[in-house]
Write a structure and sequence with these properties.
With about 120 residues, this protein is an alpha+beta fold. The chain is built from three helices and six strands; from the N terminus they run ββαααββββ.
Length: about 120
């Protein structure tokens, strides 16, 4: 069973009513792992500098290359354990804010990831 720690609205771990860190399982865990993977910036991980999404290189460089970014995002999401497929990703950049919606099929079902 896929499990991971839950995070709150500011992406911090948190303690539930039982006094323990909150754990997610199944489709919720896979979606949380997808969200975490999609937040990683290219070059920010000390031991994996080649991992992460090229936000500055592909999107926030003056001329956004959304097809290139979608390719990286799709590969990142497909690398998350439990993800089976990713439908076409809808994305846009408005007022220097990138948003996307991805329909992700997991081994536990289908869900939408917004980023």
């Amino acid at each position: 069973m896929t499990q991971t720690f839950a995070t709150n609205e500011v992406n911090d771990l948190y303690v539930g009513g039982d006094g323990n860190l909150v754990l997610l399982s199944g489709i919720e865990a896979v979606l949380a792992a997808c969200k975490t993977a999609s937040l990683a910036q290219l070059g920010e991980m000390v031991l994996a500098t080649g991992a992460g999404l090229p936000n500055f290189q592909a999107v926030f460089n003056g001329t956004p290359n959304l097809p290139l970014y979608e390719t990286y995002l799709r590969a990142t999401l497909l690398a998350v354990p439990g993800v089976v497929s990713v439908a076409p990703i809808e994305m846009s950049v408005e007022n220097h804010i990138l948003t996307y919606t991805a329909l992700i099929t997991t081994e536990f079902g289908t869900a939408v990831l917004n980023g």
